[in-house]
Amino acid sequence: MHLLNLPPLLSLLALTSALPRPTPAPTPLPLIIWHGLGDRYDADGLHSTGDLAKKVHPGTYVYYIRTDDDGNTDRSNTFFGNLTTQLDDVCEALKLDAKLLDPSDPDGGIRVDALGFSQGGQFLRGLLERCDGLSMRSLVTFGSQHNGIAEFQTCGRFDFVCKGATALVKGNAWTEYVQNKVVPAQYYRPLNATTGMPKEEYLEGSNFLADVNNERVNKSEGYKRKIASLERFVMAVFEEDVTVVPRESGWFAEVNATSGEVTPLRERQMYKEDWLGLRELDEKGGLFFETAPGKHMELSDEVLRSAFKTYFGAEGEASSGGLLDGTIAGGRLNNDQQMLMQDDHVFGCGADEAQAWWDSLTWLERRQFEWEAVWKPWLRGELAPLRVYDKDHKKVDLL
Ligand SMILES: *[C@@H]1O[C@H](CO)[C@@H](O)[C@H](O)[C@H]1NC(C)=O
Ligand SMILES: *[C@@H]1O[C@H](CO)[C@@H](O)[C@H](O)[C@H]1NC(C)=O
Ligand SMILES: *[C@@H]1O[C@H](CO)[C@@H](O)[C@H](O)[C@H]1NC(C)=O
Ligand SMILES: *[C@@H]1O[C@H](CO)[C@@H](O)[C@H](O)[C@H]1NC(C)=O
């Protein structure tokens, strides 16, 4: 990775030494970064992304959002937990970091730029809506699920906890048990095939998305004001994303699951009636629909650098326009990013952390999990025979 970065860095140094000394640049806004599913805040790959942001705008303070100071717990919290609690905790933690405070705000508010990868993108948006005293200039999300997911991804071959969790969600997505415990279930958003509207169970039972998207009858004026207060909301979708179903969720579009027909955000009721302040933001030129080349989270330094340059930096300094023809220029992954991204797909939890999570449960919790994940849906006829794998990766027919 360092070898790969060396040539551009050297040419940059050569260039800057030939230029007249610039006046000291104004301080860039702090940057908060929220990682994706299966990732952890202290991962090397994530930090190399933060380092790149510092290279593009020297002096940037980078805060890596975590739900726990222990990296392993932070990672397992990307699969399991209640997002209401997680967002509240993150909000409180941000307020304890003096480096995030806006020096010009007598009320001690926080003012930042924000970068979200995959599910971290919609969590940052929810955080902005819910966290009093937090304000954002640019919110940039890559491959996020702003309009939810219509399907859960298949699990890795050895992930029997992952398979259990998926089965659990399929049979019982709207129970309090699942909504309180399984993170992706809280942004699961299936449509009624006849009406094309979200299912009633979603509107009633969703612990996260139906609320932060202001889809319920009673809408939060506060959420709307927060979104409209952004200067820029940048939604980047990966051209060849097959992990997020549908990938246009990253642009807040609605997709007919049968025909694949996409209704862009600007044609949706939520935009026309401006439930969430997105139209107001768009009308002042602050909404950007971007495309990044490659599959889910196949990010290159070039793409990131281009986004950082355009949307981050000191207040009033970053360019106000979008990127040329809506496309962030492509490039190749560096090794660190490959390491970072390989686990980041919906429910494709690696065998090790799945096993570690299972090992951390008490006997009673395991039995409860089996009951909820396997036996209950099976009794209701909702579950096809489930193949699972034991600790030694030997296949076991459970049912
Ligand atoms: C999630 O946590 C919040 C806050 O503690 C709680 O009010 C809510 O009922 C929980 N959600 C579920 C589905 O249990
Ligand atoms: C879809 O909506 C129609 C019309 O409201 C309703 O009759 C039907 O039961 C719904 N289907 C599902 C699967 O919820
Ligand atoms: C979705 O597409 C199918 C197939 O073209 C069509 O029959 C159905 O009416 C569409 N649903 C909605 C809500 O538009
Ligand atoms: C909406 O809010 C009003 C006033 O707070 C309340 O009376 C009403 O029951 C709410 N409606 C729903 C569907 O939650």
Automatic annotation (TrEMBL):
Signal sequence annotation: 1-18
Which Pfam families does the entry mention? Palm_thioest
Q: Which InterPro entries match?
A: AB_hydrolase_fold
Write out the entry's keywords from A to Z: Glycoprotein, Hydrolase, Signal
Listed Gene3D superfamilies: alpha/beta hydrolase
Q: Which organism is it from?
A: Saxophila tyrrhenica
Q: What class of enzyme is it?
A: hydrolase
Family, per the entry? Belongs to the palmitoyl-protein thioesterase family.
The EC number(s) attached to this protein equal: 3.1.2.22
Question: Could you cite one Gene Ontology molecular function of this protein?
Answer: palmitoyl-(protein) hydrolase activity
Q: What is this protein called?
A: palmitoyl-protein hydrolase
